[in-house]
């Protein structure tokens, strides 16, 4: 039997009498490497253990997790931060299903990732004969992914990987499923033919220039606006067109609002930021330009009380079908954010009317009033700590270290952190995103630490942390610069609920009181802190940043602090019904 070899570097192929052979394992690895994808986030097991081993042997970075969902979330974060699809590797059936949640979340968030999963034998699966981990994974993945492919022959691996990459990053980015049956990985073929079958994807995410008439229409509308507003979404952050976005905002002089993951695209202390006057500008503006942001639930679907007076919308987006999805869009501009923003900025000359002075003055007045109010709240230092006092410490830490990536999840922990912590650099904030889900914390933190090589602080509600908490071991194993701050108020939302029946079980929202999450980190060799004051929190954070190693700070928060469902009280069926 000829030796099985990789395909990328022909000179390393040993001279043998029989032609060198390669196999599915090597072809998959070489296909990804050929396209500059060098990291796998995954969880090994049948049938992909050797794929992970060989990938590492061939120089890829393989980050193994304790649960596939977290591996998938890390891959999704990597995709968002790098514009290259993050790669997640899972075993068949249950492993695949665990990873699928992350794939669906990536698709919803428009993050490019590829979930590669081993699968059982097609012949047996399709006849439902009861294989080991039998599941029709391709069909299950389809509705949750932007695209889904299965490769059955070794010679098609190059094309399969190329299609997956292109589907993930072109147009509106998203999650792609790539099904690799066990038999495929073991298939062998001539190494030279294998090498030729690989595809280097050319221009995976081509620029898409907006139609000139769509740009003129948008500019005309802006010109006539009396109270214009720009809304920046995470699509604009993803596009890495930071300088062009800044130029458009500054040239136009229009107040802007960043959605949570667009914070830092322009620094939050920018004079045109209207974050501190959010409700006011949403209600009072007359023309709103959406840049890589969707009018979904996070923006009250573009209608209702939040939006107050009648609006006209301009929307810059790469997906034409996004337009008119919730309300009529007067001026759609379809193309990639970089091209659309540049075209608009070019149309804003010296003679372009600046926003009316009374509008800017009204925004500034509201902003200053709210900032003064917030400063007073943040200045209070109660015992025990509340969300505001603890977050004001983190706010100062980020101000002093603007290149820290913040990962943030929870209910109150998310809502308050989003408004209290200013961001100064693009793509430094990763959070619950479009679905508003819990469980992204440790996956995003690992992905961000691996991709940036810089300090990450994960600000976690105690409930949110529970979904991915076991990955503290992963963080320690790879010695990542991740500092987790658990806002511990003994429960979901709060820790004060009581069992209405008087029975011995605690209320469904209550956890073990006084839990020491810091001990979890210590169990794996990281550093734990248990803090009850802002001073101790500050000190622990300073030490964590100086250390640049795995740290968990158990930050004790008043257990009565926090509101039911954070700011989403209206989404609870009972509260919604009682309002009717
Ligand atoms: P947010 O939650 O911050 O409001 P969304 O995820 O709702 O942001 O919106 C992001 C939008 O950006 C999506 O409609 C998506 O199609 C769009 N988008 C993503 N990448 C690009 C890009 N490179 N160019 C243009 N639009 C993009």
The domain count comes to 3
CATH architecture of the largest domain: 3-Layer(aba) Sandwich
Question: What is the global morphology?
Answer: globular
Radius of gyration: 25 Å
- Helical run tally: 23
Q: β content, as a range?
A: 15-25%
Largest sheet data: 6 strands, parallel
Helix content: 25-40%
- Give the terminus-to-terminus CA distance: 75 Å
Bound molecules: adenosine-5'-diphosphate
Q: Under the CATH scheme, which class of the largest domain?
A: Alpha Beta
CATH topology grouping of the largest domain? Rossmann fold
Strand order of the largest sheet: 3-2-4-5-7-6
CATH superfamily annotation of the largest domain: Thiamin diphosphate (ThDP)-binding fold, Pyr/PP domains
Low-pLDDT parts are none
Report on this structure:
The protein has 580 residues and is α/β, with parallel strands linked by helices. The chain folds into three domains: 21-197, Thiamin diphosphate (ThDP)-binding fold, Pyr/PP domains (Rossmann fold, 3-Layer(aba) Sandwich), CATH 3.40.50.970; 212-364, TPP-binding domain (Rossmann fold); 380-568, Rossmann fold (3-Layer(aba) Sandwich). The chain contains 23 helices and 19 strands. Strands 3-2-4-5-7-6 form a six-stranded parallel β-sheet, sandwiched between helices. The protein has a six-stranded parallel β-sheet with strand order 15-14-16-17-19-18, with helices on both faces. Helix 1 (24-34) runs parallel beside helix 7 and helix 10 (212-224) packs across helix 14. The mean pLDDT is 95. The structure holds adenosine-5'-diphosphate. Residues 109-110, 172-173, 233-235, 238-239, 259, 261-262, 292-294, 296, 298, 317-319, 322, 336-337, 434 line the site of adenosine-5'-diphosphate (ADP). Adenosine-5'-diphosphate (ADP) is lined by residues 109-110, 172-173, 233-235, 238-239, 259, 261-262, 292-294, 296, 298, 317-319, 322, 336-337, 434.
């Amino acid at each position: 039997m000829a030796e099985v070899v990789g395909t990328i570097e022909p000179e390393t192929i040993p001279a043998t009498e029989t032609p060198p052979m390669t196999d599915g394992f090597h072809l998959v690895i070489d296909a990804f490497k050929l396209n500059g994808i060098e990291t796998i986030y995954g969880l090994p097991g049948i049938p992909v253990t050797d794929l992970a081993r060989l990938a590492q042997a061939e120089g890829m970075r393989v980050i193994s997790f304790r649960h596939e969902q977290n591996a998938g979330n890390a891959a999704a974060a990597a995709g968002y931060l790098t514009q290259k699809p993050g790669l997640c590797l899972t075993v068949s059936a249950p492993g695949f299903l665990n990873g699928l949640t992350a794939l669906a979340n990536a698709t919803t968030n428009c993050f490019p990732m590829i979930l590669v999963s081993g699968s059982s034998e097609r012949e047996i699966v399709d006849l439902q004969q009861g294989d080991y981990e039998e599941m029709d994974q391709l069909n299950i993945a389809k509705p949750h992914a932007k695209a889904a492919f299965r490769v059955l022959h070794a010679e098609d691996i190059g094309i399969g990987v190329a299609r997956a990459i292109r589907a993930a990053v072109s147009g509106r980015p998203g999650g792609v499923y790539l099904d690799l049956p066990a038999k495929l990985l073991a298939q062998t073929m001539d190494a030279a033919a294998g090498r030729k079958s690989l595809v280097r994807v050319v221009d995976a995410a081509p620029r898409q220039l907006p139609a000139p008439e769509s740009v003129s229409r948008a500019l005309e509308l802006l010109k006539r606006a009396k109270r214009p507003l720009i809304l920046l979404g995470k699509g604009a952050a993803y596009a890495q067109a930071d300088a062009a976005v800044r130029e458009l905002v500054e040239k136009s002089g229009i107040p802007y609002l960043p959605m949570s993951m667009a914070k830092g695209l322009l620094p939050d202390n920018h004079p045109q930021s209207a974050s501190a006057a959010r409700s006011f500008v949403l209600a009072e503006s007359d023309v709103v330009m959406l840049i890589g942001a969707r009018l979904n639930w996070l923006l009250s679907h573009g209608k209702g009380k939040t939006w107050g007076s009648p609006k006209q919308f301009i929307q810059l987006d790469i997906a034409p079908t996004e337009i008119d999805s919730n309300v009529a869009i007067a001026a759609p501009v379809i193309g990639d954010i970089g091209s659309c923003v540049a075209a608009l900025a070019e149309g804003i000359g010296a003679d372009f009317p600046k926003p009316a002075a009374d509008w800017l003055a009204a925004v500034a007045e509201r902003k200053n009033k709210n900032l003064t109010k917030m400063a007073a709240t943040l200045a209070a230092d109660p015992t025990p700590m509340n969300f505001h006092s603890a977050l004001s410490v983190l706010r100062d830490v980020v101000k002093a270290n603007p290149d820290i990536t913040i990962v943030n999840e929870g209910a109150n922990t998310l809502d308050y952190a989003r408004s209290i912590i200013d961001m100064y650099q693009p793509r430094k904030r990763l959070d619950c995103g479009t679905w508003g889900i819990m469980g992204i914390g440790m996956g995003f933190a690992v992905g961000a630490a691996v991709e940036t090589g810089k300090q990450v602080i994960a600000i976690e509600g105690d409930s949110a942390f529970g979904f991915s908490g076991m990955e503290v071991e992963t963080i320690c194993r790879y010695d990542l610069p991740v500092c987790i701050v658990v806002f511990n108020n003994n429960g979901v939302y709060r820790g004060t609920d009581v069992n209405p029946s008087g029975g011995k079980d605690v209320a469904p929202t209550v956890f073990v009181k006084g839990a020491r999450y810091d001990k979890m980190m210590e169990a794996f060799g990281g550093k734990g802190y248990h803090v009850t004051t802002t001073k101790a929190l500050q000190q622990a954070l300073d030490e964590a940043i100086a250390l640049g190693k795995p740290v968990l700070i158990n930050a004790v928060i008043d257990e009565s602090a926090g509101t039911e469902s954070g700011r989403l009280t209206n989404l609870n069926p009972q509260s919604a019904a009682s309002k009717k």
